[in-house]
Amino acid sequence: MRIELGVALTHLTSRKRQTLVSLTGVVLGVAFFLAVSSLMRGSEKDFISRLIDNSPHITLSDEYRAPDVQPAELRWPGAAVQISHVKPQSETRGIRGYREKLAFVESLPGVRAAPVLVGSAVLTFAGRLQAVTLSGIVPAKMKGVSTIEQKMTDGSLDALAVNPNGIIIGRTLADRFSLRLGSTLSVVAPSGASRAMKVVGIFRTGNAAYDQEQTFALLKRAQSLLDRPNRANRFVIQLADPYAAREVALRIEATVGYKAVSWVEASEDILSVLLVRNIIMYSVVSAILVVASFGIYNTISTIVMEKTRDIAILKSMGFHARDVRQIFLIEGLIVGVLGSALGIAVGIALMRVLAEVTVKPPGVTEVVHLPIWWGGEQYLLATAFALGSCLAAAYLPARKAGRVHPVDILRGAT
Amino acid sequence: MSAVIVAEHLLRRLEGEVPVTLIDDVSLSIDRGEFVCVMGPSGSGKSSLLYLLGLLDIPTAGRILLDGEDTSRYQEDELANRRLEKLGFVFQFHFLLAEFTVLENVVLPMRRLGRLDEAAQRARGSELLERLGVADQGGKRPSQLSGGQRQRVAIARALANDPLVVLADEPTGNLDSAAAANVREILRTLTRDLGKTVVAVTHDAAFAAAADRCIGLVDGRIRAGWQGPAARPASASPGPASVSPDAPAPAGDVP
Ligand SMILES: Nc1ncnc2c1ncn2[C@@H]1O[C@H](COP(=O)(O)OP(=O)(O)OP(=O)(O)O)[C@@H](O)[C@H]1O
Ligand SMILES: [Mg+2]
Fold it and tell me: What's the complex ipTM?
């Protein structure tokens, strides 16, 4: 065993109570760090997974990211041309050659895609009107990219496949219009075309606006109703790895040309809020460790003051300032290492307890467990913070100890 | 005989609002194997001189040659290395580490030097304790020892790395006469049998009598032939504290 370590251990054991108090500070700091971090990160993961599950990972629409280059700019490239009041093309024409593009997107590894034609329509039933979004889908493909199948309370997507005049509506609309499976209503397109359709499925997502305004029909039926034969104006894309969405979206956009928006881009605001939340949370829990490090500073300062005589002996014997500094840094390190180890144990116990806690969010019937994240990096982070603050706390007294001049102490002692 | 310590025009001044000169133009030479005592009234700078010779303190001017090596060009760490390898210290108060056993205290300098393996260090430590007659005390804490025993342990520790010079500051100042005689005898033996050089600050006339020669110090300067208390009747021998720094220089004290 190194002498520095030996001396450090005798110092800590000679001040058991104070060492224990500062150790407790670190243990509690690390434990709270872990409990809070696991809870915050757990709820964040929970939130993001809901976000990922309930929205398409990537949506490809029949729009372009940048406006078209105007002919004048093409004619004189680099010239100081400024064209104002350009009217964008208002008519959405759909994705050109959507079948080939869909085939390309589906050929990418881990990617499923479904073509959708989205348009507006008006539903009428028993003299009442409701403007709705009519999405024409291919049920077999839609099942692969959307959770709508799991949200069906009556009927199924497959019923749509066998009934070309079928329509799927949301629970809110069904309740308002007193519709049931098998009810017939008529759908009026903007062009004036209208068609009688039969309710073959009812879904409930919990989002009232969506449950009122969203309807699904067969792609073919929607194409004919909306007068867009052989067109789709949106791809709903689902990935095996949702976190690759940004790169895959870029790749698709680069090849296909149309605008592909990943869920990351679509929820940028929420993700940045989560980031800020994490920064705040980690600053607060680190502050606990900083406070704990005051205890260590206090303990080691006391030891240095008490042991100046010993320091003088060691230095007169031939110990360097660095050796003496090391003794006290080791003391900080011992408290830090022990504190982190015990703190992680206590923290995990605390997390287990928290994981058992159930809560009942308002407006939801089922009770849910608190979401706890067990990820490894928070242990590393807590340990790094604990060791860092322990070493920082030990550094000042250690430096002071290293600067002790044996002669000053020897003169004072005789 | 070769000189093991040579001091040339040492000056040690403490700068401050009132500058204090601790050591004023001291030159001396100490040969290998000599037993030298340093005497003088209290406050005359004996300890200060010992700290300079022991490389614990750095002179304001002048230089010290240790074993032929000019130490004035060394930085703090190099001076510490010289202390570790070539010097041993014994102070008036024992200065042992209270939380370590007697044997661990003796082994400490060897561990820092790291030339011997652990078993050899312990063997040498036990051997030193035996030589100083405290072999059976190795497992005890310093607080469980008598003053004389502690001082012998301190000497054992000073000898740990087989130094050239042992510097002692009033090693018997805190002991009764029997224990003092014992320690004095041990230091005497170090020079005679082991060829060590011993420089000891003392107020003790008997101690001075045992030395090969004495260096007299008054007001930070060497006074040849200063015999101090030794020149007076033994019954009137004053304790260290009763000699004031500004006491008039004794008779026969001619520069
Ligand atoms: N830090 C200091 N500041 C000012 N003066 C000091 C300081 N340290 C020592 N002195 C003075 O330096 C002089 C020499 O002190 P030193 O301890 O070397 O004397 P000494 O001969 O060892 O005395 P003693 O026999 O009492 O141990 C004394 O006059 C003392 O007052
Ligand atoms: Mg003194």
Answer: 0.84
Q: What is the share, in percent, of chain B residues with pLDDT greater than 90?
A: 53
Among A223, A235, A216, A141, CA closest to A173? A216
Nearest to B99 among A10, A314, A414 (CB): A10
Contact A379, A344 (CB under 8 A): yes
A414 touches chain B (CB under 8 A): yes
Which of A202, A232, A262 is a domain's end point? A232
For atom 31 of ligand 1, which residue has the closest CA?
B43
Tokens read off for A296: 């260590």
Q: Looking at the partner chain, which of A14, A312, A318 has a beta carbon nearest the beta carbon of B112?
A: A318
Give the count of domains, chain A. Answer: 2
The pTM (predicted TM-score) of the whole model is: 0.75
In a shared domain, residues A178 and A115: yes
Specify burial of residue B65 (Cβ count, 10 A radius: 0-12, 13-18, 19+).
middle
Q: Which domain holds residue A377?
A: 2-52+270-410
CB pairs under 8 A between A and B: 68
Residues of A with CB below 8 A from B112's CB? Answer: 3, 317-319, 323
Quick one: what percent of chain A has pLDDT higher than 90? 46
Q: Is B210 on the interface with A (CB under 8 A)?
A: no
Domain B3-95+163-222 indexed as CATH 3.40.50.300: yes
Helix (H, G, I), strand (E, B) or coil at A132: strand
How far apart are the C-alpha atoms of B231 and A390, rounded to whole Å?
60
Residue A63 inside a domain? The answer is: no
For every residue of A198-210, DSSP letters joined together read: EEEEEE--S-HHH
pLDDT of residue B230: 46
The residue that leads in pLDDT, A41 or B229, is A41
Q: Is residue A71 assigned to a domain?
A: no
- Asked if A318 and B83 come within 8 Å (Cβ–Cβ), the reply is yes
- Name residues 8-37 of chain B within 8 A of A (Cβ): none
- Write the residue with the smallest CA distance to atom 24 of ligand 1: B42
Kindly list the domain boundaries of chain B, sorted by start residue: 3-95+163-222
